[in-house]
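User: For a reading group we're discussing how well predicted structures match intuition. Take Bicupin oxalate decarboxylase/oxidase. Before you show the prediction, I'll give you the sequence so everyone sees exactly what went in.
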Amino acid sequence: MARKGYKGGRSVQKIVPTAKIDKMKLHVWMVVAAVVAGGWARVVPLEQAPYVRSAVAPALDPRAGSYADAVESALHNRIARHVRPDYSPLAKRQAAADSGAITDFGSSPPQPVRGSKGASFLHGSNTDIDRQNVDYLSPPPTDAGTVPNLKWAFSLSKSKLLNGGWVREQVVTDLPASKEVAAAEQRLAPYAYRELHWHRVAEWGLVLNGTVRITANDEDDRNYVADANKGDLWSFPRGVPHTLQAGPEGAQYLLVFDDGDFDASGTTFAVDDWIAHTPRDVLAENFGWNSSAFNSVPAADPYIVPAAQGETWLTIEEARKQVEANPAGEVDSPYVYRLSQQNKTQAPGGGGWVKVTDYRTFAASPTLASAYVHVEKGGLRELHWHKNAEWGYILKGKARATAFAGGATARTFDLQQGDTWVFPTNYGHYIQNVGDEELEFVEIFRAPNFGDKVKFDDFSLSQWLALVPPSVAAKQLNVSQHLVEQLSTKKQIIVAQA
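Assistant: Thanks. Here is the predicted 3D structure of Bicupin oxalate decarboxylase/oxidase, as structure tokens, for the group to look at:
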């Protein structure tokens, strides 16, 4: 190859071999690549780059172009694999060959094996946990990339045992992805009550079993008393003072709060804790009592107050006399919502039903919206996403869910009774009933900004595809237009087992 130069003021032509030029270009390319990488990378000669030599040299075909061009292409492909997934037809065919179903190990201990991939344990593992999380151990081939843990089991939470009941929490330190919602399971013995208190956050409750008597006051001096039965909800806006008392059979319930950092200082304020930390002469002046009346005030927060021997509770009629005697009257937005009596919205194609609540139906809960979902055996909560993060709790049954995090990343989770999850805003997902009974769970939503109103919303993938021009969806999915035209333009919510 001729290269132009200057000598003695005269232009001259110098013959340089093409191979040498190719090698010079390669060295320049490698220096640029190192600079772009942003580090003090050591540039090595081509023959000393083992990953290039082993991956490329044996496959070189002199008819395909220069050695430098082939190596450059191989280096580009190696680097590109770290910044984008491999969408080659071969990779698609390999993925399609595996349906992605849960690996069935039968009665044998589950192993980190899927088809020809993986290998059995050589040392051993916690088989009980592995059985509950088979998709961690043997993930479907559609899982890809790094998606953080989005699941927490209440069985892993430390229980706080008290006279009259117990409580266990799930907060942001347990599930870091759940920054907007925290939760607790709480149990009260018969007639025990959760002490008088209030929060800087909103409280939403679902009665899992038993009966809970709700009492509360609002900022306009109005009060409220009502009983919530199994399947009913209650909600207290932030700052509203309240207490909960169990009925004759006791009670267990789920609590949800619109802040993931529920254990932060200044979140919960208990009355007797406050009194115990206030000078007694101030207390005496405030209440008009003798200061000795506070000698028995607990020095520590009792949290749950057990019923005394032989103690019961007032009838609801007697309890409401205090409300009826209040000149300010009763609160205008009841704190209890009879979800157990709400009509079920049946899925159009069968397979289950749903009950949705937000501020439009439950005015006392403006910052937390919910859906109570029932999925028949083999059914599927359809592929969908939400504008707001979804926090969920399994009430009954077993489920499987895959979170699609965008950017060709996804992770599959196995869920069972008492498990919680969070799918961050706009994550695509489904929830499939993989158990031998009905699946029931709740979905909870909070607005991005603390204190903002939120309404329930979801976006259905199949409905979206049915509403765009069929030719567009068919090209996108690489299927026939006839298949697309069979999709329903109505949101399915739940898909029944075929």
